[in-house]
Design brief:
alpha+beta, five-stranded antiparallel β-sheet, 10 strands, about 35% helix
């Protein structure tokens, strides 16, 4: 055993420069490949998920999922917690899908989602309202969401816009980073 050990020590001493170079290269290359490897995988999976989802959505259009209420879906790095419509009137904020012209001053949508990764994410949110398959309201919002945090936000239609909306059925569609997460019909009545 002594001769074998002596040969290994002799080889190490003869090749110390090569071993140091290998150790330095590996110590630099592994953290870089781990860092960029994760980002590349995340970005590619986002693009693939969004492209596949958008391709099927373009075929089915926005009105194919009427009255759906989406909960706990995973869109790569974002987990949807809740999304719902609400009215604002004399009694305050009430979750509902029926809005009354005489009782409510306006209405909105509340959204909550979680950033599942440790990095800061720039999130783009869009809210569309349709009447008879025609877009009558379009709003775009941006947020920076810290890693592993929950983002909650209320968006509302201004009272003057609500006053101009006619009695009837409407469709509310909400997107997060280009992925549709909410599609719900609602009614505005006179009461």
């Amino acid at each position: 055993m002594g001769e074998w050990f002596e040969n290994i020590i002799k080889w190490i001493l003869d090749n110390i420069g090569l071993l140091i170079l290998c150790a330095v290269t590996i110590s630099i290359a592994i953290p870089i490949s781990i860092h960029f490897g994760k980002n590349i995988t995340i970005n590619n999976s986002n693009k693939n998920i969004n492209n596949n989802y958008n391709n099927t959505q373009n075929k089915n259009q926005h009105h194919s999922h009427k009255n759906s209420y989406t909960h706990k879906h995973d869109y790569s790095n974002i987990e949807l917690i809740s999304v719902g419509l609400y009215s604002i009137g004399k009694k305050g904020k009430i979750l509902t899908d029926t809005f009354y012209k005489l009782l409510n001053r306006n209405f909105g949508i509340e959204v909550a989602f979680k950033n599942k990764i440790s990095n800061l994410q720039n999130v783009k949110m869009k809210w569309h309202i349709y009447k008879n398959d025609k877009k009558i309201y379009n709003k775009v919002f941006y947020a920076k969401v810290k890693g592993h945090t929950t983002y909650r936000r209320d968006f509302y239609v201004k009272p003057n816009i609500f006053a101009k909306m006619q009695i009837g059925k409407y469709q509310s569609v909400f997107f997060i980073n280009g992925v549709q997460v909410h599609n719900k019909s609602f009614t505005i009545t006179k009461k």
